[in-house]
Design goal:
The structure holds 2 protein chains of 2 kinds. Chain A is an all-alpha fold. Chain A has 13 helices and 2 strands; from the N terminus they run H-H-H-H-H-E-E-H-H-H-H-H-H-H-H. Chain B contains 11 helices and 4 strands, in the order ββααααββααααααα. Classes of the chains: A mainly alpha, B mainly alpha. Chain B: It is found in: Cell membrane. Chain B: Belongs to the binding-protein-dependent transport system permease family. LivHM subfamily.
Chain lengths: 326, 294
């Protein structure tokens, strides 16, 4: 009951949001929130830490950008093509990576994603260091013009909600229960007769496809795609979002994505404010050194705060014996 | 003389360059393997500490006029000390947790180190002069051998095999290997395992810093030099497996040579060839060339 009300309020807020906050910024937030949710499906619910999710995010972005600009495909087809490319890369990468476990899995995903980075760096259609510029937004189903930010916002909101619904449905399905069993105790899942490798691979491909959906949508929103999105630092960023919000919680990655993206965009203002309050001039330079701050958050999270914001809140509610609020 | 239409001179010089890169791979993957064996932590910060070693050498030269040879010893000691502080204050709390937290923590440390150096020095590379004693080249008749590159290969081979000797053939190494197998039992015999763990981490990162100082005159010293290298080294580690010291050294050198040859015959693939080899090894022998399937 409570849950339905809170989802209703959240939905109403999302509908009203573009009238208060700059829509492009909101759309960027939605894309990253979806990206983090896709990533969390793997780490939080299957127990696999991928350090190569930038590959899916960026590859889908490039393929969608190419499809919309150079191949002249309609918007929805361009995005679908991006998702398909991400799923295919996920299938190939996943099939290799699940041959090793634990920390090796992570290193393999990182290495394969780096390989893809070099491929995109050298490929002709990506524009190399300049990136793929001037991607048109086009018309949805040939009818709805997406050039207005507000129209596009509702389209992106629909995509994000659909993506989130898929994640939720997956987690609560029998398939999701098997994934959870793999996470908790892999040998036992094997002894119960589950083909663990197949389940892992399916989860990997699903996560890659959803990350691709986020990446393709982001290219549509911003109108360009650059190497930043395939770089390892992007893989690290999505790990950080999920970690800050809470590994293995449904809403955590969304909260984490909002915090990290807002921080990246507003760090300069925050630094100036701190400098004014504390009169320490050094804070003014903080806006230029986002990586120092993200690194610091990583360290603090891992050492003191492993459940993340949502995880800590849930633990707090549980300790105090109140009925669940989220 | 030509081989497959490539002048022998060009091929040998690329081979040497590959061997130089291979020595860095070998030293870094060796450090990673030693640290992982005892600490169960994959040290993502290894690349950043390699970068720090190179920068310390550069800073010593530019700010204090300290020469290369002094920094070759001093920089690894300083970075080793820094590593000991990291282990004592942060890594120590993560040993009982999943391995992934160690990776995430050291990733955070990497971002901070890179960010600090970037905010001070920017992303462009700083040149570092080859020390006077090693400038110039020697004519071997069939090729011109740049002295400094030869020195890098020899120095890293000596360090790698010294490490192998200490770990495999001495009593200290025996403690270390026993600690890798069963730390609790070793502790029961009265060996101070926590101290051993701390010193091992310090040694592993000192090795990375040593590689960094060696690399400073070969490539430009830049804040990003470490993170580009560490991902390739991860692939090397996956290919070799972390079970054997000698295996790490051989895999590192071998991949450096493969990379050098690719640069001669098909330059477009030189950035990705190590990852392709990794994919092939995963398909044929998932445990890695020298790995033991657990």
């Amino acid at each position: 009951m409570n849950k339905k009300i809170s989802y209703g309020i959240a939905f109403a807020l999302l509908l009203a949001a573009p009238f208060i906050v700059y829509p492009v910024f909101l759309m960027k937030l939605l894309c990253f929130a979806l990206f983090a949710c896709a990533f969390n499906l793997l780490i939080g619910f299957t127990g696999l830490l991928s350090f190569g999710h930038a590959a899916f995010f960026g590859a889908a972005g490039y393929i969608a950008g190419w499809a919309l600009r150079d191949a002249g495909l309609p918007t929805e087809l361009g995005i679908l093509l991006g998702v398909g490319a991400a799923a295919l890369i996920g299938l190939l990468m996943g099939a290799l990576a699940i041959r090793r476990q634990g920390i090796y899995f992570t290193m393999i995903t990182l290495a394969l994603a780096q390989m893809l980075y070099f491929v995109f760096l050298q490929a002709k259609f990506t524009g190399g260091e300049d990136g793929l510029q001037g991607v048109p937004r086009g018309k949805l189903l040939g009818a709805v013009d997406l050039s207005s930010d507000l129209t596009l916002y509702y389209f992106v909101l629909a995509i994000a909600i659909a993506g989130f619904a898929i994640v939720m449905r997956t987690v609560h399905s029998p398939f999701g229960q098997v994934l959870k069993a793999v996470k908790e105790n892999e040998p036992r899942a094997i002894s119960l007769g589950y083909d663990v490798d197949r389940y892992k691979l399916m989860a990997f491909v699903l996560s890659a496809a959803l990350a691709g959906l986020a990446g393709a949508t982001k290219t549509l929103v911003l109108g360009f795609e650059t190497l930043t999105d395939v770089h390892w630092s992007m893989s690290g960023l999505v790990v950080l979002m999920t970690l800050v919000g809470g590994l293995g919680t449904l809403v955590g990655p969304i909260v984490g994505a909002i915090i990290i993206i807002a921080l990246e965009n507003k760090l300069g203002d925050l630094g100036n404010m701190l400098a004014n309050v504390t009169t320490i001039e050094w804070f003014r330079t903080i806006g230029d050194s986002v990586t120092i701050v993200t690194g610091l958050i990583f360290i603090v999270c891992v050492l003191a705060f492993r459940r993340g914001i949502v995880g800590e809140l849930m633990a707090y509610v549980e300790r105090n014996g109140k009925p669940n609020a989220g | 003389m030509e081989i497959f239409g490539i002048p022998l001179q060009a091929m040998l010089s690329q081979l040497l360059l590959g061997l130089v890169n291979g020595s860095f791979y070998a030293m870094l993957s060796l450090g990673l393997a030693v640290i992982f064996g005892l600490l169960n932590v994959i040290n993502f910060a290894h690349g950043a500490l390699y970068m720090m070693g190179a920068f310390l050498a550069w800073m010593g030269m530019n700010y204090f006029g300290i020469n290369y040879w002094v920094m070759l010893i001093a920089a690894p000691l300083l970075v080793g000390l820094f590593g000991i502080i990291i282990e004592k204050t942060m890594l120590r709390w993560l040993y009982k947790l999943d391995h992934l937290y160690g990776l995430l923590l050291t990733f955070g440390i990497t971002l901070m180190l890179e960010g600090v150096f970037r905010s001070v020095y920017g992303v462009s590379g700083q040149p570092y002069q080859v020390p006077d004693a090693l400038t110039g080249a020697t004519n071997l008749g069939f090729m011109i051998l740049p002295n400094y590159r030869a020195w890098v290969v020899v120095a890293s081979l000596v360090v790698c095999f010294a490490t192998w000797f200490v770990i495999e053939k001495t009593k200290l190494g025996a403690y270390l290997r026993a600690g890798t197998e069963n730390p609790k039992l070793v502790e029961a015999f009265g060996v101070n395992v926590p101290l051993m763990v701390t010193l091992t981490y310090g040694f592993g990162v000192a090795l990375a810093a040593f590689a960094g100082v060696l690399a400073a005159p070969v490539i430009q010293v830049s804040p990003l030099m470490g993170s580009n290298l560490i991902i390739t080294v991860f692939a090397v580690v996956v290919i070799g497996g972390m079970g054997s010291i000698l295996g790490s050294i051989l895999t590192g050198l071998g991949l450096g040579i493969i990379e050098g040859l690719t640069r001669v015959f098909y330059p477009e693939l030189s950035a990705t060839v190590v990852f392709i080899v990794m994919a092939i090894v995963l398909m044929i022998r998932p445990a890695g060339l020298f790995g033991k399937e657990k």
